[in-house]
Design a protein that fits this description.
The structure holds 2 protein chains of 2 kinds.
Chain A (H helix, E strand, L loop, with lengths): L2 H12 L3 H35 L8 E6 L3 H4 L35 H9 L3 E6 L7 E3 L10 E2 L9 E4 L9 E5 L2 H4 L5 H4 L3 E7 L5 E12 L8 E3 L1 H12 L13 E5 L5 H13 L2 E4 L1 H44 L1 H9 L4 H40 L15 H27 L3 H6 L2
Parallel strand pairs in A: 4-9, 6-8
Antiparallel strand pairs in A: 1-10, 1-11, 2-10, 3-7, 5-8, 6-9, 7-8
Helix pairs in contact in A: 1-11, 2-9, 2-11, 2-12, 9-11, 9-12, 11-12
Chain B lengths: L3 E12 L6 E12 L3 E5 L6 H8 L7 E6 L2 E2 L5 H11 E5 L10 H5 L1 H6 L3 H14 L15 H13 L5 E5 L7 H18 L2 E6 L2 H5 L3 E6 L2 E3 L18
Parallel strand pairs in B: 3-8, 3-9, 6-7, 7-8
Antiparallel strand pairs in B: 1-2, 1-4, 4-5, 9-10
The chains are: A alpha+beta, B alpha/beta.
């Protein structure tokens, strides 16, 4: 029997006992449906994280902190005070904790120079915390706003407009939740408009700074605040220093080190090691969000495992169905063997039936999952998850769907080997005598 | 024409072991020449079906040899044996063994399908075989919707479709009434006469056996020279060893 005929016969045989086949297909359907949905959720969420946390990091940017003191960190409980440890005073009391936290101490001006002189680093921008009191547009009320201290390390997820530039103009990327409040019709409308940011100086007097909106940023998973360019940072620092009579010790929570644009992963790794030797902790954006993604993929992994368990249960359904089928068709198998069909071909016939049942269940399951998932996903995007624009909770990738179908067909094949082996080993005479 | 197509020498076959051991064949020899029609006659339990299975290479003897066209079947590999059965042998069974939900044509072309013949040629040769048995108008029918005689004609068409050298028929008329049985017998002997197909018929029906060129009588696993008297039919050792 040639392979084409074998497959065709297997498909025809599958439909001989329609009820039994359909029940088995339903079992596989459930497993395949679940697996498709869970893998789509996994893909949807990681795609969202990628777009949120910066198309994996501004290329060639490292966030540098003082490395945590390993000596004291090993101790449980609060760290003992160590007067020998050189730390600048906490530069901005009350500022929100940025990446790395405050525990490790601040970077001094000397540290910044050390980082800058590290081989491979082209420039360093210390992270300066600036705060704004309010933001307002023409005729709108005043609203509180927080500003992102590490704008340079993030590639923003923009709804409209363009990323920040290093021009000598004050620029801001407006978070989209401010659109309505500031009286803009939509994201496009806001781009190019000018807003006013208010900041308080050292003696408590408020100053207004005019800022151009160059882009509108989708709401992010992490509340980083509005991204601003270097020029605006400097302007706000200047405002905040106004009236300050005593020079506070200068220190920075962290710094953004720029590397060569085309730095390879190996080069980045060696720069990180260099910096680590000097007592700094340098992380790419990918490093920083890595832990977050590990948690997400762990959860998705558990969900997938449940779906696979369902599929394995369905696999036993296939074993059962085919064993009954082999039993019923004992004489037919005997006849085919008497007519010269080899055991290998008989095995092929029955395992193809198993694989076809697996294909039916998984293809229908995957198709139903895509339809249902797309509908649910769209509904959620406009209701429950409307606060997270750009989040498509389920992302169906063709490669993932094909993988699911292939995995199910693989399980079906394994399930089919037992009945198929039994059929292949049947003695034609016993089979023909069988009543 | 006189060279033997099938030759069996001193065939022994037993089933089970110990006290449950049953010797089905205790040293049977025979030679079947091409174009002959041979009846293997015996009662139930005489070993006639076992002998046919061994001749048809469906089973191996415990002792003794089967020569097919002068070649020892024991030296053939599994694939060659399958090929031989597929190309040279046709089978007609008492129980028909038709695939119930397939069409008559699909049933008939099963040997060709196993042989890997292309779909078009299968259809042509299948229809030709059905035409020879005047069943071409039933080609699209389900096999289950036929009468007993029609079913057995389909089985003969299936046995014929690969142009075999030998047709093995195990009680070909056992499930048919006398008139229909007569028709099926006529078909088989016509094939034997006109196409030179060797017939090996296993039966307990002495009338059918008489129509063959030669009869081999089996009793308790041995060949007996004396034909069993017709008046003992249905008595004696019947069922004793089955």
């Amino acid at each position: 029997m040639n392979t084409g005929d074998l497959l065709k016969t297997a498909v025809q045989n599958t439909f001989r006992s329609k009820l039994r086949t359909s029940l088995t297909v339903v079992a596989i359907f459930i497993g395949a449906f679940t697996l498709t949905i869970t893998s789509a959720i996994g893909a949807g969420i990681s795609d969202y994280i990628d777009s949120q946390l910066g198309a994996i990091g501004a290329e060639g940017v490292l966030t540098v902190n003082k490395a945590p003191d390993t000596e004291t960190a090993a101790e449980e409980g609060p760290n003992r005070y160590d007067p020998d440890r050189a730390t600048a005073d906490d530069p901005f009391p009350g500022a929100p904790a940025g990446p790395g936290g405050f525990g490790a101490g601040a970077l001094t001006v000397d540290d910044i120079e050390a980082i800058e002189s590290t081989h491979g680093v082209t420039s360093v921008e210390p992270t300066v915390f600036v705060s704004a009191d309010f933001i307002t547009a023409d005729g709108s009320d005043k609203y509180e706003i927080s500003l992102n201290p590490v704008s340079a390390a993030i590639v923003p997820d923009l709804a409209a407009g363009a990323p920040l530039t290093n021009s000598d103009q004050n620029e801001i990327l407006l978070p989209d939740e401010y659109l309505d409040a500031l009286g803009f019709a939509d994201a496009e409308d806001a781009v190019g408009a000018t807003v006013t940011i208010g900041a308080t100086d050292a003696v408590g007097e408020q100053h207004d700074v005019d800022v151009a909106i160059v882009g509108v940023q989708n709401t992010s998973l992490l509340p980083l605040g509005a991204s601003i360019n270097e020029n605006l940072t400097d302007a706000l620092v200047e405002v905040q220093q106004t009236g300050r009579t005593v020079d506070a010790p200068v220190g920075y929570l962290s710094a953004v080190a720029h590397l060569e644009r085309d730095a390879t992963d190996d080069q980045i790794t060696s720069i990180k090691e260099d910096l680590a030797d000097q007592g700094f902790l340098a992380q790419t954006t990918a490093d920083q969000i890595g832990a977050f993604q590990t948690v997400i993929s762990g959860i998705i992994g558990v969900l997938n495992a449940f779906a696979v368990i369902a599929l394995i249960a369905a696999g036993f359904g296939i074993v059962n169905t085919l064993l009954m089928s082999v039993q019923e068709r004992t004489r037919e198998i005997g006849l085919m063997k008497a007519m010269g069909m080899g055991g290998g071909r008989v095995f092929g016939l029955f395992s193809s039936e198993a694989v076809f049942i697996g294909f039916l269940g998984s293809a229908i399951g995957a198709a139903a999952a895509v339809l249902a998932g797309t509908a649910i996903s769209t509904a959620l995007a406009t209701s429950l998850l409307s606060g997270l624009p750009g989040l498509q909770i389920m992302l169906f990738e063709p490669s993932a769907i094909i993988t699911v179908i292939l995995v199910v067909m693989g399980i079906a094949f394994l399930a089919g080997t037992l009945p198929a082996r039994r059929a292949a080993q049947q003695n034609p005479i016993d089979a023909l005598r069988y009543e | 024409m006189n060279s033997p197509v099938l030759e069996a020498t001193d065939i022994h076959k037993s089933y089970g072991s110990g006290s449950g051991r049953f010797d089905a064949l205790k040293g049977v020899s025979l030679a079947v020449r091409a174009g002959e029609s041979v009846a293997i006659v015996g009662k139930s339990g005489s070993g006639k079906s076992t002998l046919m299975h061994i001749l048809a290479l469906l089973d191996q003897p415990d002792d003794g040899a089967v020569l097919v066209g002068g070649e020892d079947a024991a030296t053939l590999r599994g694939r060659a044996v399958n090929q031989l059965r597929n190309a040279d042998f046709g089978f007609v069974f008492q129980q028909f063994f038709l695939v119930p939900n397939a069409t008559v044509l699909d049933n008939v072309v099963l040997p060709l399908k196993i042989a890997g013949v292309s779909g078009r040629e299968r259809r042509e040769r299948g229809m030709a075989a059905l035409r020879a048995l005047e069943l071409d108008d039933k080609a699209k029918n389900r096999a289950t919707n036929l009468s007993g005689g029609q079913k057995q004609r389909v089985v003969i068409a299936r046995a014929l479709v690969n142009n075999p050298k030998v047709i093995f028929a195990d009680e070909p008329t056992g499930n048919l009434d006398t008139a229909t049985g007569q028709v099926v017998e006529d078909i088989l002997f016509t094939l034997n006469r006109e196409q030179g197909i060797t017939l090996i018929i296993v039966t307990h029906d002495t009338e059918l056996a008489e129509r063959c060129d030669r009869q081999i009588y089996l009793r308790d696993g041995r060949e007996t020279d004396a034909p069993a008297p017709p008046n003992l039919h249905g008595h004696g050792s019947e069922g004793a060893a089955a």
